Structure formats: C-alpha cells, structure tokens
From TrEMBL, chain A:
Compartments in which it is found: Cell membrane
Single GO cellular component term: plasma membrane
Chain ranges of the ABC transporter domain: 5-236, 255-499
Protein name (record): Simple sugar transport system ATP-binding protein
PROSITE patterns: ABC_TRANSPORTER_1, ABC_TRANSPORTER_2
Family affiliation: Belongs to the ABC transporter superfamily.
InterPro entries (alphabetical): AAA+_ATPase (IPR003593), ABC_carbohydrate_import_ATPase (IPR050107), ABC_transporter-like_ATP-bd (IPR003439), ABC_transporter-like_CS (IPR017871), P-loop_NTPase (IPR027417)
Annotated GO MF terms: ATP binding; ATP hydrolysis activity
Lineage top rank: taxon: Bacteria
Stored PANTHER family: CARBOHYDRATE TRANSPORT ATP-BINDING PROTEIN MG119-RELATED, GUANOSINE IMPORT ATP-BINDING PROTEIN NUPO
Gene3D superfamilies: P-loop containing nucleotide triphosphate hydrolases (3.40.50.300)
Native species: Devosia crocina
Membrane topology (UniProt): Peripheral membrane protein
From TrEMBL, chain B:
Keyword Transmembrane appears in the UniProt entry: yes
Keyword vocabulary terms for this entry: Cell membrane, Membrane, Sugar transport, Transmembrane, Transmembrane helix, Transport
Listed GO CC annotations: plasma membrane
Organism: Devosia crocina
Membrane topology of this protein: Multi-pass membrane protein
Keyword Transport in record: yes
Main localisation: membrane
Record GO terms (molecular function): transmembrane transporter activity
Transmembrane segments: 6-26, 38-56, 62-82, 94-113, 133-158, 189-209, 215-233, 240-259, 271-289
Localization, UniProt: Cell membrane
Protein name: Simple sugar transport system permease protein
Automatic annotation (TrEMBL), chain C:
GO molecular function, one term: transmembrane transporter activity
Protein name listed in UniProt: Simple sugar transport system permease protein
Keyword Membrane attributed: yes
One of the record's GO cellular component terms: plasma membrane
Localization (cell): Cell membrane
InterPro entries linked to this entry: ABC_transp_permease (IPR001851)
Source species of the chain: Devosia crocina
Length: 505, 309, 360
C-alpha cells in the first residue's frame, strides 16, 4: 500500500526567512503522525502547502503514490485532505449549519446537509445543535464544528493544527477518542503540536522540525519528553533559576471581590475575583481562553474602570477607581495579551512606544511636551538589556518579530521597576530562547520585591513559574494555593468548571 | 384632506423614495460584504448625467437606465480597484469618489442645464390607471416597480441563496472565508459593482422620474442619506423599504404642509429644505439609542482585507 | 511578466513624501491624455490649470488668498484624521464660523474700534467649534457615526445662510438681493500688501500650520491624537481616553474651519452672501491628504489645490474649459495619492516563474 502522503524536499522561502528547507517525510494510511516543533519552526507553513493555501518553491507532494500539485484548498479537499485550523475559520454571526454549508464545495440542499451532519455527529459523539449561532458556543464546541465540517468530506487525511491549545484536559481526552476512532477507520491524521505529553499519548510517529529543517522522524513512545524537547529546541534546555526557600514580604496587591460589567455580546466579565499577592510572589492564573482573562487584566490595569475604590489596593492604598495613568504612577504596570495594537502600536517607533507607558514614571513629559531624547535613551536600554533584535529605537514596532516585540514590551515594563506587574500570556508565540529570558526576568523582578500576576493558558509555564496558582472559569476565580499543592487533574477540572461538567454529561 | 390630495401625496412620496431605496439597497449589499463605499453620492451623479445625456441624445429611457447602471459600475470600479486591489483607505477613497463624481458630472453636463427631456412614462397602459385609486397601484414608471422587486431580490439573495451566504460570510470574517477557499476580493468586487449599478440607476431616477432636466449636484445629498439609511435599517432590506418611505415622506412634507395651510405653512422654505438632513441625524440618534443596532453590522465593515500571505 | 507586492519591513519614508508629488505629476499626464481623448484641449487644460498660475506673477496674490482658508481648514482636518475622526463637515463649520462673525459684524454695525475684528474671529472660532461639537456629542455619547452627522449638518448650515440673508439679516438697502450689508470698516480684514488682495488671513494660515506642526510632533496632545488614531486599544492601555480625543479632534478641526469662515467673510466677501459656501471645507479634505496629514505638508497641499482653483478660472476664460474640470483634476490627484499609498508599505517585485533553479 502506498503512503497516504509523501513529501520530498519541500522548500518555502519568505522574505528574510527560509520557512521550510528541504523537508521530506511520509504519512501512512491510518497513522497518527505528529508534526512537532517550536513556534516559528515552519509547521504551519508546511501544512498550508499541503492544504493548498500556499505553494512550495520547490519539492514534491505525492498523494497515495501519485505526484500532485495542490493549487488551492478546494483542490486539497477534492483529494481528500481536511484541515482543522488553530484559529477557527468560523463565522460568529452565522449558524452551525450555515458555517458547515460554507465549508462544503458541492451545493447540498440544507435539509440533506443537516441529516448528514446529524449522522456524523452521532457516529463520532460530536454533539451540537445545527441551528445555534456560533457566537453562543464554547471554544470546544466551535472546534467540533470544524471537525464535523472536515469529516463530512470523508477525508483520507485530517490535518489538526494545534487543536488542544484552547481545550480543557477533559475536552482533550474527548478529542483524542474521536481521532483514534478515525485512525482506526483508516483516516491518516497529521497532528501539529508542541505539547510533548500529548504526542506521546496519541501519536504513532513524530516528525520534528527546527528552524524550517527536519531534525528527526521518530517513534514518540520510544522517546522521553526531554529527548524530544531537546530535538525540538536544539541546545540543552535551560531551567528557570529560582532561589530556593524564598520568603515573601507583606501583601502588596490585594484584590477584593473585583467585578466588571458585561460589555460586548460575548465577553466574559470578571465575577467577584479575590486574591492577594505578596512582595516577591508570582501568582499564576490558569484558564481556558475566553473565561474572563482579558477583563481581569483590563480591570487590574485600569483600562476598565471600577466603581469600588477598595476592590484593588496596592500597599493598602485603594486604586480601584483610578485610570491607567494614575495606577502606573503608583507602581502598577500591566502587559496585555495582544501585542500589536494593544501593548504596542505597530506603526510607531519603539521610542514612541516607550512614551506610551513609561512617560510619567520616567519623566518623559515636561510641560506637555515630550522629551524624545529621554524616550530614546530608555528604549536603547530596553533593547540592550533584553537583547531585542531591532535596528534601534527608531525601528517601528511592527517591523519586529513577535518574540522580539514581546521582549521589548516586557523589558519596557520591567525596567520601570513596577512594584506590581500584571502580565497576560507573556510567552505566547515566542521562541524557546526568548521565553526563557522573559521567565528569568520575571523571576528576577519578583526577587527584587515586586508582586507579579501571570495570566496564561500554558500550564507548563505556570507550573514552572508561579509560586501560587488560581484558576479562572467563566469569570470566577478559584482559591489561590501554592502551586505544588495542585495536581494537573485538579487544575483541569477547575479549568473545565461548570460548563465542562455539563458538556461531559 | 381630499382623496385626490392624498393620492397626489402618495405618488410624490413614491417618487422621492425610489432613488434613495435603490441606492441604499445597493449599498446594503456592498456593506454586507464588508466594504463601506461612501461614494454613493458621486456614483449617483454619474448615473444621473449619463441617463440625462442618453435620453437627451436618443430619447430611449430604458437605454438611459442601462447605461446609467454601467456608468455607476465604471465609477465603482475605481473605488474597487483602490480599496480592494491596493487596500487604500475606504473612507478616504469613498469621499474621493464623491468629489470625482460631482466634478465629472458637472463637466459632462456643462451647457445642458435647463434643457428639458421627457420623463419615463408609466409602465402599465393608461387604462389601468384611470381611476385615482388604480393610479396609486398602476400609475408608476418601471423604476418604481423595479425598486420594489429589488427589495425582495436582495432579501432573497442574502437570506436564501448560497451566493448570499458566501457574501455574508466574507463580510463577517474575511480571513476565515479566505482560509476556506473563497475569493474575498472577488466577492467584494462583485458587491461593489452591484452597488455601483444600483447607485447609477438611482441617479437615473432624478432626470427620468423627478425633474426632467440636468442640474449640477441634482442628487443633493440623497446618496449620503442612502448610506445613513443602511445603518438605520440595521442592514436589513425590508427595514430599508420602511426607512426610504419615511424619508420620502419627510422630503415631500413641504408640499402638503403648504397645501394644508394652517401654522405649518408659515415655516420658512429653508427649514423644509433642511428637514431631510435634520431627519437623518435624528434617525441616526434614535437608532443608536436602541442598543442592539450596531451589533448587526457586518464585522469586517470598512476594514481592508490583509491576508498574512 | 508578473508583479507581486511584497510587504516592506519598515514603511518607506521616501515613498511617503514622494507619493503626493508623483500624484500631482500623474494627474497632469493622465489628465492631459483623458481630456484630449474626450475632445478637450488636454495639454492646454493642464498648462492653464497647473502652470499659468505659477508663471503669471499677477496670479500669485490669488494663490495666497485661495490657499489661506484651504490651509487653515486642512490643518484642522489633518489633526482630526490623524485621530481617525472623520470630520467631513468642515464646510458646515466654516459656514457657521462665517455666520458667527457676520452676526458680530451686524451687531456692531456702524461702530468702530480695534476690538471688533478680533471679536469676530473669536466668534467664528467658537461658531465652528460649537457646530462640530454636535457630531462630537453624538459620537461620544451615542456612538453615532461622525461622517454622516457632520455632513448632514453641512447641508443644514447652508439652508441657514439662505434663510438669514433672505429674511432677518437682509440688507435693507440691497434692492432685494439676498445678502447682508457690507461690513463697517473695522469689521473688515486688512490687506497686508497695499494694492493687492492679500489679506491678513495669509500669514495667519502659515502661523496656524507651523504651530500645529510643532504641537503634533512634540506635544502629548499630538501624541494622543496619533496613538488614538493608529491603535485605539493601545491608546486606552497607555491612558488616553478615546472620547476625549474625539472631542478634541472635532473641536480643533471645527474651530479652525470656523476661523477660516470668519476670515473669509471679513476678508474677500466683506458681507454674507448665499454664495459663501465655496466648497473650501470639502476641498480641504484633499488638501489634508495631499499634505500627508502633516501640517507642514498641508501648506504644500493647500498651494497645489489653490493653483488648480486659480488655474481653473484661467482655463475658463482662456480656453473655455468648465470650472468643473478643476474638481475632476482635484479628485484625480486624490485617487492617485491613495493608489500610491500602497508603495509606502509595499514594494513591487517582479515574480520569477516558479522553478527549482530560481530558488537560490
């Protein structure tokens, strides 16, 4: 039997970066094949070429033994290739049925389509009401639409791009059951991830990419997580250096029954969060995306103004009704999740971006005029201290890679020596080296006596970084406890919260 | 009021409402695809002068409508090329199109002002419209019936057809539509062209339906009112029908206030002339007070489509 | 051969400043061709519209007088558009500024005193700002789109002029013409060069542009406008209120349009007439874009557009080209500018056919 998919010497060049360099591997029928690599290793580019979104500059794609070109996604689907994207290609304002109809190339009467959808849902246990509007669905439910959409085409190869990054551990288990059932029926699965334990649990084969090149194709069950991680990252892993037996100072940031208003249609507000962070302590807040993390960060930073002054206090001073500028003056800095357009202005120079948050703490404004020299000097220091790869303070923020921009943003806040720092997704989409540097900087800031809150969806990151941990679900925050008192299962259950339980039922 | 007066009022309101309705339906489709074309006024003027010139030269009203639509499409393609192919700012480009249409129509119409043409006659034979009551139903030109048919057609297209589903999808989430494999730019070009054709026909209504001559800027801001109406209608065709007729009523209010006598007739003519614009502002305010209105806006409205690759 | 657009790492500064110039040149070339094709004297039109105002020294004073209101309004619009606030009702604010100044002039009719003209100017500024505060209020309180409201209010303001000059403000000695009295001497804007028509509005325009440039490039106010326009979310994070910025943008642009209105009515017009709305408010939109939304650039944009206005009048008398041609040329310039904008962020690359050899 020929290989389902065989790639030979696939190469793709982007301006300034070789995204794929002579990548070759094969996927057998019914095989669950992992494509493993750090962010930026070239996984997404590779599957986009398989799915016809991009064309390789060189190399050959063989499908069931035949050499093929895949000019567009429609052609890919005709061949029998289905794909579930990491960022779902769904339309919030449309119904499940309309969304699926859009993904079908043939025109099927909606009644016939609906019965086929129900059939597929029944077979694989992917339950959904076809007439619900997508906007009202949870992230896990949205992913089911994508999977159903792909399965309706009876694919011979299903590509899953980082499917679990937004799921609770329980939802991940349900997904794995579906994938194993599919593989048993002969459908090959190309599973993209950087989560090693998942790959060990699910996959038959793993192809590891690093910097666009193929490093190894191996059997994940024969490897240890550490050995795969080293192949993926290259040089030996660096661990976070935390001083042993650290003691914490007095409470610095005290949050007491913090609430936010429901703003948009589908935003999750914060519903009575309370916690205390002491000087020198790092509090991690875990949770599945879209459970009120953004509202929590905005409420802490002052972007959402509260009406209760005592809901947030720093060193006993109530700041709950202050705006961002006043909070910064009192030592509270924050880094939101979205870098470009929220934490930084892409069209502005790095120097001007420093003015955005550091102007008052570092005296960059004199009588309503901006001291651009001071901004430039400070920006130069951030670039140097955080090893930001940029031409200089005059480079625009938009010209930096995601990881470098994040290093700049973290540096911009950390070098202001805030007494409280709140960060969301500090290493999201950042390569391993930069992530390690950011983690170390956070630990060092804490050691110097600041209180730090890290909001993240990456459990591994939180478990390595935080001293105490709390879980947010539907805007409600669990009790914060020392991180070593939690088991992964317990965190998972808390992350699933109420709606996780109803789905399982 | 006498029945004759009421019928006269209805006929006037229908006439005043028709161009706004047609133009707004075109813009509604454009906006549903995620594009904000503020050049409606300019495209209407291009349509108006084209229709006038064709009727003046050939006397053929239907050819005039057809060529006005074509001229509207041509004008809309300037906008389409700049905003869709070159991702220029939609607001600025729409404004530029209006300025362009105003200048071009004035240039083309130079020397033709006050030269009369004939209006487009009623679609149905005069026998059907002998009685005043029947006139209300059968006394209009084809453009009026076209505008009604268009309401249904646009509603059906958006709600029932697959092409309409794709168009809505492109307006809701262009990146997703692109990743599924639809041509975002292609769909938007088609929508912009349709909007241009409708604006052209709406412009043709002025010399063919309302005042049988050419005058510079004869559309007098009706294109902008059409844009405002789309917001008022929350991007729904039947609400647009109601909105357009509401405006038709406001625009012709002066006539029956004068006819009716009493205190209303003392209101200065300038206030009546300003009424449609004041009404537009009032309507926009009312619609925004009703909270959920903006939630129905296509999510990608006015944003350029910038795929990562 | 195929071409492809490729994103630049950094927006090109050179292209940013080159595109307005290229847009003007392209307009001349393409304009000449198109006007020839549709049966006009294309080359003559371009010569008269773009060059005669420059070569004929007698026309220079006209240029200054036309450019001054365009620059003043354009500077205000450039600030508003930077903040992503689309005030397109500057024409209406200009009219209200003119009416407010007229009101003072009529109240003080027959009086004399140095204070009359400054008071008119202040009234004009206040009138424009007040009229712009309506869209500001509606946008910030009710989220009503300022494009539509500011434009609708322009139509209303024009009707207001018609009403005022027809009834309450009509010149009793005007033989029935719908216009106000000619203002008293102290309500008229003085000429700065005797024997010319160049009035004090011309240096005021230059000063306005210079001050605005300094404020926009150096001050926190300017930073606020730019950051709210470029990334509203980031602006909120940086501690800038979007609503406050919308207010400021509309008030500043309205105030400047009102200033231009006061200067025009007390200068060239000397009375309020129905023909007072001369589209300066709309044309200033093109001026702001030609000037790259930079107050210094607006001086350039204002002069270019003034050239086309003066040239359009020349062409009308010399080769019988309709005044409307000017509008077509101005719109073409804006089209070319917007089209050229893509070269600021992208570069054009020739696409080499995809073969294995071409890879290295």
């Amino acid at each position: 039997m020929p290989n389902r998919l065989e790639l030979t010497g696939i190469t793709k060049q982007f301006p300034g970066v070789l995204a794929n360099d002579g990548v070759s591997f094969a996927v057998k029928p019914g095989e669950i094949h992992a494509l493993l690599g750090e962010n930026g290793a070239g996984k997404s580019t590779l599957v986009k070429m398989i799915y016809g979104i991009m064309q390789p500059d060189a190399g050959e794609i063989r499908w069931n033994g035949q050499s093929v070109t895949v000019p567009n996604p429609k052609a890919a689907r005709r061949l029998g290739i289905g794909m579930v994207f990491q960022h779902f290609s769904l339309f919030d304002a449309l119904t499940v049925l309309e969304n699926i109809a859009l993904g079908m190339d043939a025109k099927i009467p909606s009644r016939a389509l609906e019965s086929r959808i129900r059939e597929v849902m029944q077979t694989y246990g992917l339950l959904l009401d076809p007439h619900r509007t997508v906007a009202t669905l949870s992230v896990g439910e949205r992913q089911r639409i994508e999977i159903v959409r792909a399965l309706l085409l009876d694919p011979q190869l299903l590509i899953m791009d980082e499917p679990t990054s937004v799921l609770t551990p329980q939802e991940v288990d349900q997904l794995f059951t579906v994938l194993r059932k599919l593989a048993a029926e002969g459908c090959s699965i190309l599973y993209i991830s950087h989560k090693l334990h998942e790959i060990k649990a699910l996959c038959d084969t793993a192809t590891i990419l690093r910097g666009g090149k193929l490093v190894d194709t191996c059997d994940p069950k024969q490897e240890t997580s550490r050995s795969m991680a080293e192949k993926m990252i290259g040089t030996g892993l660096r661990d976070i250096v935390k001083a042993e037996g650290r003691t914490f100072g007095p409470p610095k940031l005290v949050v007491n029954r913090l609430r936010t208003q429901k703003t948009g249609h589908f935003d999750v507000p914060v519903d009575g969060a309370s916690f205390t962070v002491r000087a020198g302590e790092i509090l991690g807040i875990a949770g599945v995306a879209g459970n009120g993390q953004n509202a929590l960060l905005d409420a802490l930073s002052g972007e959402i103004l509260g009406d209760d002054r005592e809901a947030i206090t720093i060193d006993g001073l109530g700041i709950g009704t202050m705006n961002t500028t006043e909070r910064r003056k009192r030592g509270l800095c924050a880094v939101p999740e979205e870098r470009n357009g929220h934490a930084a202005v892409g069209d502005f120079s790095l120097s001007d971006n420093s003015v955005l948050t550091a102007r008052d703490r570092l005296g960059m404004v004199v009588m309503g005029l901006i001291n651009s020299g001071a901004a430039k000097t400070y920006t130069g220091k951030v670039i140097a201290d955080f090893a930001v790869k940029a031409l200089g303070p005059a480079s625009t923020a938009g010209s930096l890679s995601g990881g470098n921009l994040q290093k700049y943003i973290m540096g911009r806040e950390i070098l202001q020596k805030p007494s409280v720092l709140v960060v969301s997704q500090p290493t999201w989409g950042v390569d391993a080296g930069a992530a390690a540097a950011i983690h170390q900087a956070l630990v060092d800031l804490a050691s110097a006596g600041s209180a730090i809150v890290v909001i993240s969806q990456d459990l591994d990151e939180l478990r390595a970084l935080s001293d105490t941990l709390a879980v947010i679900n539907m805007g409600r925050l669990s009790q914060a406890r020392p991180v070593k008192d939690f088991s992964v299962e317990e965190i998972g259950l808390l992350m699933g919260g109420v709606h996780g339980a109803t789905e399982a039922a | 009021m006498s029945p004759e007066l009421i019928i006269a009022i209805i006929v006037t309101v229908v006439g005043a409402s028709t161009p706004i309705l047609i133009a707004a339906l075109g813009e509604l489709v454009v906006e549903r695809s995620g594009v904000l074309n503020l050049g409606v006024e300019g495209m209407m003027l291009v349509g108006a002068i084209t229709a006038f010139l064709v009727v003046f030269l050939t006397g053929n009203h239907y050819l005039a409508i057809l060529l006005a639509a074509a001229a509207g499409v041509a004008a809309s393609m300037i906008f389409g090329f700049l905003t869709l192919s070159l991702s220029a700012n939609q607001t600025a480009t729409g404004l530029a199109l209006t300025i362009f249409g105003t200048g071009l129509s004035a240039l083309a119409g130079q020397g033709y002002s006050a030269r009369p043409v004939t209006l487009l006659g009623p679609l149905f034979p005069a026998e059907l419209a002998l009685h005043p009551i029947w006139r209300v139903l059968f006394g209009y030109s084809a453009l009026v019936y076209f505008s009604f048919a268009l309401v249904f057609a646009v509603w059906w297209f958006l709600k029932k057809s697959r092409a309409g589903l794709i168009l809505r999808a492109v307006g809701e989430n262009d990146l997703s539509a692109h990743s599924i494999g639809y041509s975002v730019i292609g769909v938007r070009y088609a929508a912009v062209a349709f909007g241009g054709a409708m604006a052209g026909i709406a412009g043709a209504c002025f010399p063919l339906l309302l005042t049988p001559q050419w005058a510079e800027r004869m559309t007098a801001g009706r294109g902008w009112i059409a844009v405002a109406l789309v917001v008022f209608a929350s991007w729904r065709p039947f609400r647009l029908l109601a909105g357009a007729y509401l405006f038709g009523l406001v625009m012709t209010m002066e006539l029956y206030a004068k006819a009716g006598g009493g205190p209303l007739s003392a209101i200065p003519a300038e206030l009546w002339a300003a009424m449609p614009y004041i009404a537009t502002v009032v309507v926009l305010v009312l619609i925004s007070i009703r909270r959920d209105a903006s939630n129905n806006a296509p999510a990608c409205l006015g944003k350029p489509f910038l795929p990562s690759n | 051969m195929q071409f492809r657009l490729e994103k630049r790492r950094e927006p090109s500064k050179a292209m940013l400043y080159a595109t307005p110039v290229v847009a003007v040149l392209l307009t001349m070339v393409v304009g000449a061709i198109i006007f020839s094709l549709i049966g006009f004297d294309g080359i003559g039109a371009v010569r008269e519209i773009f060059f005669t105002p420059l070569t004929n020294a007698y026309k220079w004073q006209d240029l200054g007088v036309k450019a001054a209101p365009l620059i003043i309004i354009g500077v205000g619009l450039s600030i508003a558009y930077r903040a992503n606030v689309w005030n397109i009702g500057a024409e209406g604010q200009y009219v209200m500024g003119g009416l407010a100044a007229t009101w003072i002039a009529l109240l003080t009719y027959g009086m004399s005193g140095w204070w009359i003209l400054p008071l008119m100017v202040v009234a004009g500024i206040a009138g424009g700002a007040l009229y712009a505060s309506i869209p500001a209020l509606l946008r910030t309180r009710l989220n009503v789109n300022e494009i539509l409201t500011s434009l609708m209010l322009t139509y209303v303001s024009v009707q207001l002029i018609y009403y005022l000059v027809r009834a309450p403000w009509k010149d009793p000695m005007g033989m029935g013409f719908p216009q106000t009295r000619r203002f008293s001497a102290d309500a008229l804007l003085p000429n700065i060069f005797p024997g010319t028509i160049v009035h004090a509005g011309v240096p005021i325009a230059i000063v306005v542009a210079l001050v605005a440039w300094f404020v926009m490039s150096r001050s926190v106010f300017g930073y606020q406008m730019k950051v709210v326009g470029a990334a509203p979310h980031a602006a909120r994070y940086g501690g800038f209120s979007e609503n406050k910025t919308i207010w400021l943008a509309l008030l500043v642009s309205g105030a400047l349009a009102g200033l231009a209105g006061a200067l025009e009515v007390s200068g060239p017009f000397q009375r309020m007439v129905p023909g007072f709305p001369t589209n300066y408010g709309f044309t200033a939109i093109i001026v702001a874009f030609l000037g790259r939304l930079n107050p210094l650039g607006v001086i350039f944009g204002g002069i270019v557009i003034a050239i086309t206005f003066v040239g359009g009048e020349v062409a009308q008398t010399s080769i019988g080209l309709s005044n409307a041609a000017t509008g077509v040329f101005q719109a073409m310039m804006l089209f070319f500018l917007l089209a050229g904008d893509i070269l600021v962020r992208y570069r054009i690359r020739r696409v080499v056919p995809q073969t294995a050899e071409a890879r290295s």
